[in-house]
Amino acid sequence: MLYAEKFESPKAFIKALDKYIDYYNNKRIKYRLKGKSPVKYRTLAIIG
User: Fold this and answer.
1) Element (H, E) at 18
2) pLDDT score of 43 more than 80
3) What is the DSSP letter of 6?
4) Which end of the chain is more exposed for a tag (fewer CB within 10 A), N or C?
């Protein structure tokens, strides 16, 4: 994501990075995590 794009400013880069981190941790579904996002999987693992 970050290598394929040129950003107009540091602020634009930070905004895109924040958006990507949110996607990666909260929205990305992984088969290995039983079809859950990483955050959801960890939350359910802690609760039991």
Assistant:
1) helix 10-22
2) yes
3) -
4) C
Residue 34: both structure tokens together: 């039983």
Q: Which of 14, 16, 15 is nearest to 1 (CA)?
A: 16
CB 19 within 8 A of CB 28: no
Higher-confidence residue of 47 and 20: namely 20
CB atoms within 10 A of CB 41: 16
**Extents of the domains making up the chain:** 10-47
User: Which among 29, 25, 37 has a CA at the least distance from the CA of 17?
Assistant: 25
pLDDT of res. 46:
82
**Residues 2-26: pLDDT tens digits?**
678 899 999 999 999 999 999 988 8
Sequence letter at residue 14: I
